[in-house]
Inverse folding.
């Protein structure tokens, strides 16, 4: 690719991209401009899923791009140090995978060091399929359903692989109590159940509409359809109409009960006062 700028190569996994268009470099989420495109040495105005392409990028140095980084449109990937995944151990692995084993995680063409947190048992035998959490030493960007491989840290033997169920897990301790059962529902085939569980697992933080498709492996149109259905059945509530942020009603009821207890305690301790102001509450 001729011209000034940084040249990167790779495979178009989905969608399309045009020359002079804007993209973001993940996981840094840095905005860039595409100066030029080539496919097998021929200049192109656009590329589509399946193409092997070379891109001339403006606004970034060669040193700032690493092997395995991804180019995508804004808000099309989620970035995190943790992944909740469905992992299958190969049948020819010589020993069980232990809790907190250090492994090499391969996502796309990127290799990241991390540890395996087993959610259903203390070890995984060969040919076992289980839900686990990968805690990584660097941030990665992904979405529901992305495939990965894990290899041993020292001998470099392949241990297994699977698919991502939650690309950016929430940190609420309350959602950890029944995490495995809820992740099974997210991994299931029922789209409406998956959308509801995706929102529940984010606790009081909730999920904005644009994230639902990434977390549930659905198109934007499909996610909007299921969100409308869950709202009509009063399973979720839109708490921010501007950003379209949704929270599960179970968490809203929990917060409501907590606030009532706080107010009752306040009135019992200070019966002469009219109530609590917003800052106190």
């Amino acid at each position: 690719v001729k011209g000034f700028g940084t040249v990167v190569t790779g495979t178009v996994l989905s969608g399309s991209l045009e020359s002079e268009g804007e993209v973001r470099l993940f996981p840094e989420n840095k905005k860039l401009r595409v100066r030029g495109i080539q496919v097998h040495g021929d200049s192109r105005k656009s590329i589509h899923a399946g193409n092997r392409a070379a891109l001339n990028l403006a606004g970034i140095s060669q040193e700032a791009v690493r092997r395995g980084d991804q180019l995508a449109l804004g808000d099309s990937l989620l970035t995190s140090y943790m992944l909740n995944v469905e992992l299958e151990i190969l049948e020819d692995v010589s020993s069980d995978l232990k809790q907190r084993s250090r492994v090499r995680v391969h996502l796309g063409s990127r290799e990241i060091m991390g540890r395996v947190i087993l959610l259903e048992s203390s070890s995984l035998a060969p040919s076992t399929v289980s839900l686990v959490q990968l805690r990584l030493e660097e941030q990665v960007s992904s979405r529901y359903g992305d495939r990965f491989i894990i290899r041993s840290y020292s001998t470099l033997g392949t241990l297994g692989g699977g698919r991502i169920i939650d690309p950016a897990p929430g940190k609420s301790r309350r959602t950890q109590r029944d995490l495995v059962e809820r992740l099974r529902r997210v991994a299931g085939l029922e789209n409406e159940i998956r959308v509801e569980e995706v929102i529940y697992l984010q606790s009081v933080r909730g999920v904005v509409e644009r994230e639902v498709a990434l977390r549930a492996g659905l198109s934007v149109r499909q996610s909007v359809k299921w969100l409308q259905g869950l709202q009509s059945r009063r399973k979720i509530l839109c708490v921010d109409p501007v950003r379209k942020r949704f929270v599960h009603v179970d968490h809203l009821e929990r917060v409501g009960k907590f606030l009532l207890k706080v107010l009752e305690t306040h009135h019992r301790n200070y019966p002469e006062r009219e109530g609590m102001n917003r800052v106190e509450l």
Remarks:
- The helical segments are 179-187, 191-200, 209-216, 220-232, 249-269.
- The longest strand covers residues 129-142.
